[in-house]
Design brief:
By secondary structure, the chain is mainly α. It is 72% helix and 3% strand. It has eight helices and two strands. β1 and β2 form a beta hairpin. Residues 225-246 have low confidence and may be disordered.
Length: 246
């Protein structure tokens, strides 16, 4: 019985890069950088979101059980604590409202503006890097397609110059060039999935921040936290620096 051994495939990634020109190397390098940047941003943003979520649960347990806002602020440790930054912004708005040009603005409007600025900074930090994932997801397939088109063009020109257009000389180089399109898809698909996943998690965190700012604003202005979920308000000691509503 004669055994048939499969023919070795001379085409592959190494062969493509070894015999490719500067365009092939450039496309491969760009796709590699895109992939590394996407995975790096995914892990960094997951870490940031996890940290802010933990800060939220910590705030729920400690801040609103404090006797006053300053006592609650002391229970929110960490320089990068998002909720601590919001509370500090609200207290600064109350303390520096009087005696300046801002005293022409009603206190509740000045507090609202200050809190919103703090939240906008946090949201901007949450969105940081997502544009890279969106750009990678939308452009990586086309970068890979560029490499494929260039590889096919280079292969066909070589075959035409050789004068031997047999199927084995055509299919191998063309199939090798199609690897670039596959690389582009391998880079783009995780980037798009990561973008949608991180965006959904970010929206949940933004909702938590918005609820906290609403409660804090009500406390700083009126001295009571409004529980919108139950339709009732729980009395709290008024902030000493807030004064009466204007």
């Amino acid at each position: 019985m004669n055994s048939t051994e499969p023919a070795q495939n001379p085409y592959g990634i190494a062969h493509m890069l070894q015999n490719g020109d500067y365009v092939t190397w450039l496309v491969a390098g760009v796709l590699l950088i895109m992939s590394m940047a996407s995975w790096f941003i995914l892990f960094i943003k997951l870490w940031d979101q996890r940290r802010i979520k933990q800060q939220y649960f910590k705030m729920q347990k400690t801040f609103w059980t404090a006797s006053n806002v300053r006592d609650g602020l002391s229970k929110l440790p960490g320089k990068d604590n998002a909720y601590r930054a919001i509370v500090e912004s609200g207290l600064r708005a109350v303390e520096h409202h009087e005696g300046r040009m801002t005293d022409q603005i009603p206190l509740h409007e000045w507090i609202t503006t200050s809190l919103q600025r703090s939240v906008d900074q946090i949201n901007s930090r949450l969105r940081g890097g997502l544009s890279v994932l969106a750009t990678t997801g939308s452009t990586a397939p086309f970068v890979g397609l560029l490499g494929t088109v260039w590889g096919i063009l280079h292969a066909l020109l070589s075959i035409g110059l050789s004068g031997n257009p047999s199927i084995d000389r055509v299919a191998g180089p063309v199939g090798e060039a199609l690897q670039m399109t596959a690389f582009g898809l391998f880079v783009a698909i995780p980037a798009v999935m990561s973008y949608n996943w991180l965006l959904g998690r970010s929206k949940g965190i933004q909702e938590q921040l918005r609820y906290f700012v609403t409660d804090l604003h009500a406390y700083l202005v009126s001295g009571a936290r409004v529980d919108t979920g139950t339709g009732s308000s729980a009395s709290r000691p008024a902030v000493a620096t807030a004064g009466a509503r204007k």
